[in-house]
Predict the 3D structure of the following.
Amino acid sequence: MPIDDTHDPALESWVESANDPTGDFPIQNLPFGRFREAGDEDWRIGVAIGDQVLDLRAAGLVRSHDMTSVMRLEPAARRELRQALSKGLAKGSDTPSRWRDALVPMARVRMGLPCRIGDYTDFYVGIHHATAVGRLFRPDNPLLPNYKWVPIGYHGRASTVNVSGQPFVRPSGQIKGPNDERPRLAPSQRLDIELEVGIFIGRGNAQGQPIAIDEAEDHVFGLALFNDWSARDIQTWEYQPLGPFLSKSFASTVSPWIVTLEALAPFRRPFTRPAGDPEPLPYLDSPQLRKSGALDVQLEVWLQTEAMRKAGLAGERISVSNFAEAAYWTVGQLVTHHTVNGCALDSGDLFGSGTLSGPQPQQAGSLLELTEGGKRPIALSNGEQRTFLHDGDRVRLSAHCQRSGFRRIGFGVCEATVLPAGTPPPRDDAQAVPP
Ligand code: MN
């Protein structure tokens, strides 16, 4: 993924709102998503530019509103599409006249899931998270012996991945407290967040054909924000011996815009291992990976309680982390490891990275860690406290990439509100707030 003229920080767009230096969607970003205007029956596919969406079909750039067919493009064709978008949206360029008519204000659209998600796998690449959570359960032996060899993951449920803006109902499940003789069925009292990056597969592989490490990123379309809501009390009782199940599959929330790997090219970092740690096995290692396998993405978690909302208060930032610093494994290593046994991936499959906690306690990507297992509530500026989420709490993840000599790009937001247990499921048209 070379750095080219589409990353030029001097490049501006004739869409004036894209030139706001604090905005998430300058012409250097160009993320893909699916949207609908009032009256549309089907999702349309578009690219975010400033506060507008460019309808790709109306602009003549694609033949149908099928996101999967864009995600499936060969890397060279993807770069060509990015070049065409950059040229057509650049200030002073010969913009095709139909492009102006293909713009829709974001304020007028609802965003959907960015594509049809066929399968969802959740990884566990956050080593500071794995260590901190392991310590709560096993103080003497926090990290299990396979952690530094195997990118740990489990298969999740694609059926309950929601787009940002869609509220979800507090789950109920089997809960057994430490002093309870028997479990009971009850609403979760330890509902938590997981700050994760979502990884969307572009091109799949045939069953039986593993993806080599240096080809792995050719199969990745891009990244989004991902909140993998978790019910810790249900999880504690169910997770052995086969891993998490109903404590995770009630809801996850993904942001609507996929930031492509091409857009992320300036924000690469070397992949390193701390001194004394084992080197990855050869199938998970390469010089190219070592040079630039990691991605520098700044991550934030914001909480707005119902009381804050009623008082007209914006949310409060409760954590700041970074993908490159938190992750023990890279995006490419996840793709290669997932397919090393011959498992087939398909366009639109989604990986969760696992909770991306930084090395410091205040950089934790879950309330479980921020509150030391629920023992130390965090104090909010309006006088409230939280260990785990209350009904009405709204959590927002945001992210951006910044590096001197390049234009800042952002991911938009990944946000949802907790509804009380037993609430009727939210209707589809509750989906997606305007970004
Ligand atoms: Mn997770």
User: Anything to note?
Assistant: The radius of gyration is 21 Å. Residues 430-435 have pLDDT under 50 and may be disordered.
